[in-house]
Write a structure and sequence with these properties.
Strand order of the largest sheet: 14-15-13-16-17-12-18
CATH superfamily of the largest domain: P-loop containing nucleotide triphosphate hydrolases
Bound molecules: adenosine-5'-diphosphate, zinc ion
Largest sheet: 7 strands, parallel
Distance between the termini: 55 Å
Number of domains: 5
Strand content: 15-25%
Length: 798
Amino acid sequence: MQIAQVIVDVSARQTNTPFSYLVPDNLENSLDIGMRVKVPFGPRKLTGFVVGFADQSSFNGRLKPIESVIDLYPVINPEMLKIASFLSKKTFSYYISCLQTMLPGGMKTKFDKVITAKDDQVAAEYPEIFNGNHELVVSHASNDRDQLAKLTKLRAAGKVNVDYRLVKKANPVQAVAIKSKLDGSQLNECLATVKQNAKAQRKLLETLIADPNAELLQSELVKQGVSSSAIKHGIDAGWVEKVMVTQRRNPFFKPVEPSKPLNLNSDQAKAVSKITEAIDHDENTRFLLEGVTGSGKTEVYLQSMAHALAMGKTALMLVPEITLTPQIVGRIRSRFGDQVAMLHSAMSTGERFDEWQRINRGEAKVVVGVRSAIFAPLTNVGLIIMDEEHDSSYKQGDNPRYQTRDVAKFRSDYNHCPVVFGSATPALESRARAQKGVYQLLKLPTRINKQALPHVDIVDMTDAGKQTPSMLSLELQKAVEERLTKHEQVILLLNRRGYASFLMCRDCGYVPKCPNCDISLTVHKSSHSLRCHYCGHEEPIPIKCPNCGGKRIRHFGYGSEQLEEQVNELFPEAKTLRMDVDTTRKKGSHERIIDEFGAHKADILLGTQMIAKGLDFPDVTLVGVLNADSALDFPDFRSSERTFELLTQVAGRAGRAEKSGQVIIQTFNPDHYAIKLAKEQDYEKFYETEMRVRQLAKYPPYYYTVKITGSGPQERKVAAEMYGIATELKQQLSNKSIVLGPTPKMITRINNQYYYQIIIKYRFEDNLQSTLEQLAFDRTNNRNGIQIAIDNDPLDLM
Ligand code: ADP
Ligand code: ZN
């Protein structure tokens, strides 16, 4: 009899290792590692992952049998199993949380199983299953264990295909399309008979002539000026017919023009040849591709990926959360077509689920996605790319708190393939590794079009003469005016992080605060409310001061809403678009704004960090940064790095085509090195300067850090528990490691929970892993009502 080892879905120390279960006869030899099963566990029934099989001889006790299968095919492949165990060590998380993290959200909800016979013979061979059909749908509610076992056997024998479909909204949308009934020359004959002024009819025929076999979405045709009455006429005249087509729901899947590889310049060619050489030799080389903005990094990625595909391998490309613009996706799809699968947070659960299954079945050869796409179940990976590798969205904020770079390196080792970290402003850690030769440095020092980098001017806002009632200095106003007259485009960035508008009473100084958090409420004019950005609390804007009853309660600070208002007042003729969390909440709106601006339907794009990166608009010649200091003012060791990075990235949006670019940075700290070096756009100089600062202050990359956060509803208890932990840590770690704290966090209370933290800084620490594992598994079980979170290599120390 077979014995399966199962990790059950309970986050606890006792269940962090596999339990043994008997494999029932009807599942013997068809159950696979990586499938989920239902197992009895004490009085309960639990979900579990099969992670291995064991020999019977080593067990004496009575084992319970597996109750039934949840999956008909493995949803975790052998590589993912290894990743999960690596992750659980690295992030001090339970194995089960790591396994769950790697699956798409849809896997955790209800899905039906669609079973298709491979051929007629199979369908005929199993009449009790297929009942004369080819397909069988097993409902998510099905409890027929024998049937599931039978299907598991058929799947294992390769006789059927299995597809999961989410119960809700998962089915692909059907749409009306128009298809020609005639061939090209017949269509041409028809065109000759249509009057010149019947524009819509002519357009319809012309579109069909361009591709007589196409199925054209009616909605798209209408958008392009073919009226519904023209379509009706076409049907009546026998030119076309209506058909139903399955539409992929993904907003990114609109048709793209195929594109050919570009002729590389010498720096690009050198980079590509190094990368492809590593692919050919199955080397797990880590490359750091340091290329200024507009230097053609993406083309290097594309041609390197093409090489991996040509070698019969697959490729994985990661991009940051908010940069995953339709622009980048379009460029990749235009090169690789339907081989591309996408995993992106703007897609619905159902869409991601479908894409994930395509990857798992081996139908997609290229995966493009955000952070979690690093877990895409691609096999035979030939190349991994992390674009904008410095980006903070690559670090997961919740358990397991992993850094995508670490997983990328793990997969590169597992697959014997290179990984490319690309950026104009690499993370200091990465650049330092390249310095030591741990990464191989590839440089693209010039822009493709040989254009100089844009010219950067600093406006010193402390200079009283420059102050205006407006958020735009006179210099910036004048520059915008000039660009508008030339019919060029402008981007205005308001870095709003921690810098939103709040209310204050001019008489008593009262500021409305969140009742649940230690933070002032933010004014949202469009909804006429005050909102807490931490817990979501919302209340109406008061007319009178709730404290003194005075009427002089006013706005302070500013947000992108106010900026939009002011810009509209200053430049009434210009058309503006605003992009921030409020205007991009609706699905597809992010894409719509970018499309409109890209088509030059607006003159000014203003917004928050979202607009700083990755966008490529040839008509943009001016970028204005309204408040360069807001990132600088954060009390964190990475604030200079973040400021330099943001300014360089946003400056890189200007002058990317033939027209030269200009950047204006408004700041209250014109002498700060991050601002000065951003003006020169000298990353290497910044790297050297910042490394000295880090060395003196014992920060990364000279030291590694771990952040331990404790939280709970009673401040005294949180503090006491954290003091206890700090004392234990100091006892257990060597005296070369530094334990700082506990201290209350900058915002101590969020949603009525109090937060304290401890920071560990170390270089070499033999006892770290065991000490923190002990802490993680002892304390995360909510001891004294206090939650302990361990963040290895945290993004910030705040
Ligand atoms: P980066 O990612 O480094 O900011 P991009 O890859 O977006 O730069 O390249 C900037 C522009 O240059 C893009 O419009 C791209 O199509 C173009 N480009 C890149 N490589 C070449 C090349 N070898 N020849 C011509 N144009 C190129
Ligand atoms: Zn709040």
